[in-house]
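Researcher: Next sequence.
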Amino acid sequence: MLEQIVIRQPQLHDAARIGLAHSIAADEAYGYYFPHDWMLRRNTPSKRTEQWTELLAEPLPEGHQRRVLIAEAGEQVVGFGIFGTARDHDAPLPLELHRLYVLSAAYGTGLSDRLLTELVPGNTAHYLWVMEENTRAIAFYRKRGYLPDGAVQHLPNIANLPKIRMVWTPSYGDAAYSRGWSEPGSGS
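Model: Next structure:
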């Protein structure tokens, strides 16, 4: 399957397909512990399509950078990621991996690694947030040299669930990158 997957920058007309994939991926990653009513209201293909339409249409603020990639198997979006300028006012580093999702149908194919490699310029220090209960994603990032830095945020609009911050820098991430990766699953 992996050799048939194309990774590219999305266009505005891709928003509905990305929205559908985002809804599915979020349900696969969080559906077992996010509140059911929140998922029904906020994690619908139409809500996700609105988010992606806005993201793909909005101009980037001056001095900001953002790289958005999607992975397609034929007409189906099976993964996506966003990397760019940190969104937090107290960010530990200037760059952040905003999102990295792969549908469960692509688990074990190496797609998460491919997306991560294409999103993040080599040896670029950055951080990410991952839900504390998303043990699959945490294991994925740990294996690649990301370490929790102790920061925790609680999401008041999602049952006050905690997410943790993980950081990657060349000083402790290179060893994981140079060993090569075998994918345990999806990302954040």
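Model: The radius of gyration is 16 Å. Confidence is low (pLDDT under 50) at residues 175-188.
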